Amino acid sequence: MRIVSLVPHATELLFALGLGDQVVGVTHECDYPDEAQELPQVTHDTLEPGLSPAEIDAAVRARTESGESIYELDDELVGELEPDLIVTQALCHVCAVSVDEVRALARTLPGPPRVISLDPTTYGETVGDVRTIAQATNSKDAALDLIARTARRADVVRLAVRGAPRPRVAALEWLDPVFVAGHWTPQLVEMAGGEDVLGFAGEPSRQATWEEVAAAQPEVVIVMPCGYDAARALVEAEDFAGRLRELGADQVVAVNASAYFSRPGPRLVDGLELLAHILHPDRVPQAPAEALAVEL
Question: Number of C-alpha atoms within 13 angstroms, CB side, residue 184?
Fold first, then answer.
């Protein structure tokens, strides 16, 4: 089977299921695992480089309100790759090429290739996506193994934090304007032994105000700008140190959202372990990645 992946979390899932040798095309943002970066890239970003967070937000709003995507698809290259399966998503207009555009293209190709859209809104639905891809690619055994391993790791975290005090957590997905993380993130916070005081499980991330965040009285603030790694998140947090200081939290940390929170793929369980370490380091002393402390 020849597979084109049009969203990073699908690429990660395909490789996690041992299907990497069948992936023939990916997006320009598919950076994990390393092998994915060697494959033909069938998309590119239409936003100008070097924009500030506020400028990125404005540009994204302008393009989505006009019905335009911030990504462009190389239709010719997709055709040359002769895919049997195209995996995309419709959950977030900011995160991928329009699913309608993908389906329209697929209808013009020989076959035509099957199009699957992965659109989880909860942690449980991300597990369901594993089964969806497994059914389409005849990889049931690998899927069962991946699901079992992920469940065991999640259970270890739940047991470790059971009975511990639950700190009040604000998970911020963007800082200018400020956005509160939604979808699966509030569930991860709860599973990690915290209380998400602003987000709603299964609901989209939403724009808030700094005053609203302060009024929620968070004890821990997790800075997780969508699509940014930990180093870039730390820079953003330092740029907004004044605003973050006004929240009165005991702890502010920057994390790798791109790897562990923004993408609803196999590494969400790493994000769970990282959150548990941040909130309860005495009970979860090991973490899959570093949480960068923000000096306020």
Answer: 23
Tokens for 103?
């389906």
Q: Do 274 and 219 share a structural domain?
A: yes
What SS3 class is residue 259? helix
- Whether residues 45 and 117 fall in one domain: yes
The whole-angstrom separation of Cα 37 and Cα 195 is: 37
155 has a pLDDT exceeding 90 = yes
Q: Is the domain of 38 the same as that of 169? A: no
Region for 248 from its dihedrals, namely left if φ exceeds 0, alpha if ψ lies in -120 to 50, beta otherwise: left
Quote the distance between the C-alpha of residue 70 and its chain's center.
17
Looking at the predicted structure, is the pLDDT value of residue 94 above 90? no
- Give the chain's domain count: 2
pTM: 0.92
Output the six-digit token pair for 59: 């540009």
Q: What confidence score (pLDDT) does residue 293 get? A: 85
The verdict on 117 and 177 lying in the same domain is no
Q: Supply the range of the domain harboring residue 78.
A: 3-144
d(CA 206, CA 77): 35
Structure tokens at 1: 């089977």
Quick one: pLDDT at residue 44? 86
Question: Nearest CA to 4 among 44, 108, 30, 147?
Answer: 30
